Each structure stands twice: as C-alpha cells, then as structure tokens.
Amino acid sequence: MKNRIRAIVFLLSVILMIAGISARAQDAFGTATLAAPSDPAAQSQKPPSAGGVAGGLLFPHDWLRGYVDFSVAPPHNEPDLGRCSQSRAAIVAAGGANSPCNAYARYMLGGYVEIQPFGRSFLRHFFVFLTPNVSFGNNVPQFKSTASMDGIAFDRAVGVAIELPKNFEIRVTQHQVDWLGKYQNLLGGTCSMKKDTSGPYGLYSTIGARWYFGGYGRAREGR
Fold it and tell me: What is the pTM of this model?
C-alpha cells in the first residue's frame, strides 16, 4: 500500500517537473523570438481562426499545460470524505480517538493537466485532460488531530475535449475514486460506513459544455 501511495505522489511530482521544463522551454523560445529581427512576411501571418495550438504538427508550444496544488487543512477543519459516520455517539462507542474510521484529510495533493499534442489539422482542436487528487490524514473530529500522511483516497477525473469557436468546449469526463490503505476494506465498528467502492461524488461519466468568459480564456485565444 505504501508503495502505491509513493507511486501516486511520484506521478504527480513527475507531472510538475515536466510542466516546469515545458514552461522554461517556452520562455526561452519567447525570448529568442523577441530578439530576432522583425519579418514583415511573418507579421502578416494570422493565427488559426479558432482553437488549436500554434506551432508544428507534433508537440507545439503549450502542448502540455496545467498546475499542481498542495493544500493543508488546519486542525478541526479537516475535509470529510464521507466514509465515516458524523454521529458523536457512534464515534464514542467506537473508541473516540481510537476509532478505526479516521478518513478526515489533513493534506490534499492534486492538480490539473491538459495534453494537446497536435498543432495542425483538425486534430489541433482536441486534447485530453486529467484532474488527480490524493487525500492524506488520520483524524477524528473533536477527538484526534494529527499530522499523519496516511493515504485515504485517490480521486481523479479524466476525459477528452474539443475546442469550439467563441471560447466554448465540449468535454466528455469519467470520474472515479479508489480508497487507499485500510479503507479498501470494511472497517467494522459502529462509527464506520460500509465500503463504498465509488467514493466521494460517486462513479460517473458526463458530457458537458464549457464557456470561458471575462478574459479567463484569453490565454487560449490564437491557439
């Protein structure tokens, strides 16, 4: 189990490292472009009319983008992942601070990644995305507050999207959660719920539309 948690953390760290390398390369490319003599022919070229990533056929500028986020919850404000009963009587009956159900997170490591490897043809309008989030902790509200990084759950959404004109997107998303460590099994005791294989927010797939407004999508224009 510990190896699995280390693998998840390593995966998110690799995503951050790749994003950082990509950003540095993009900055260097931008600096070189500014330093180069102006070319009237190049200036006359117009960007694609909608969507896509400017550049070559494969792995153009901004083909990999996103962010990595690490959050810490203050004591007595731990996120409830919905695995344990909130009844004080049930928690006391199960041992209070020694309750076997302590799925209240102290740390949350996650992020968002978009991969758009094509820069030309109609394929430039398609990209895949991933939203991973791993929860860690060992806490019982009002009874126990620790700095433990025990793995609780791996929550992620993955999907494919197509860019449309006017800052619109169509997205197909699949979401699921894997419980980690002891939460893969029934915990027993009156404080714990039965195993919920779908985890927080359930297991689902959706087809949705997204619209960027107020300048939020400005960074995406001309791609």
Answer: 0.69
